[in-house]
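Recap from last week: sequence in, structure out.
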Amino acid sequence: MQKTAGIHHITAMVNDAQRTIDFYSGVLGLRLIKKTINFDRPEVYHLYFGNESGAPGTVITFFPWEKQLKGRIGTGQVGSTIYVIPKDSLSFWEARIKKFRIKTYTSIRFGEKYLSFQDPDGLEIELVERTEGPVNNWSFGEIRPDIAIKGFGGATLISAQPNKTANVLEHILGLELVGQEDSFLRFKADSDIGNTIDIKLAPSVRGLMGAGTVHHIAWRASNEADHNRWRSLLKEKGYNPTEIRDRNYFKAIYFHDEGGILFEIATDQPGFAVDEPFDELGEKLMLPPWFESKREQLKGMLPPVEVRILEQDK
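Predicted C-alpha cells:
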C-alpha cells in the first residue's frame, strides 16, 4: 500500500509579510529558508520557514497579501498547526510567548499537554513536547537548538465530512488510526516528525478562505517515481488530482477530499538548496527561471522585508 511519511509542508494566508517574518522568525525562531513569489500570483511573496535546512516536515509557508479579506477557520480547513518542541522546553516557550504579550492557554489531548495561541493573523498554533524528531540546529535570539522548534508535530483537520476525511487518511494516504478521544480521531504516519493528525469530530462553522487560515496541507512523496504513483492512485480512486506542477523546490499535485480540505502531495527533493547555498538560504529574492526576466519589475511590486531581532530580545 502507498504510504506517505507525513506532512511535507503547510501553506497559509496572511496580510503582512514583515509582520509574518517578525512572528515566525523573531518570536518562534524558525529560519526564513526561502523568499520567493507565489508562482500563480507573482506580485505576492511566498515565504518559507523551517528548521536549519527546511527539511520536509518542518516547513510552514505563507502568501502575504494586504488586500485579502479576513478568513474564518472552519470546515474544509486545517484547524491548528502543531509544532513539536524538545522535552522540558514547554515552560520556556510559555514564558517566551507571554513576553510578547500573546495570550496562551493549555489543554490535554491524547495524554499530551498543548500550549495554544494565535499568530498575528489569527492562525491557531499549538506546541507539544516530544522526544521524537531531530534537533533543529538553527539559533536565533535567545532560542538555542536545545529548546528550538523541531518542526511539525502534526495538525488538526476540520472536515465537513469527518468520516470521509478519515477514510482518505487511512485508506489513501496510509496513516494508521491510533485512537479516539472526546471529539478527536488520531492518525499517525511512520515519520518521527509531522506525523500526528487529529480530525475534529465536533460540529464547526463553515470555513472561509482568507487571511488567518490555512490554504492547504501537503503530504510527502519520497521521490518523483513515488509522486507519479500517488497521482495514478488518486485518479484511480476518483479524486481528480491536478497535473504535476513544478514548484522549483518540489513537484506538487493537488486534490480535495470529500470534507472540502485541499491536500497536496509534494516530493522531498530537490529541496531548498537547489538555487542558493545552505548558508545563504532566505537572504535573497529567488525566482524560478521563467520569471527571472521580470526580476526588477517584481522587486518594485514587493514590499521590502528583513529578518530582525525584535525589541523584546535586545
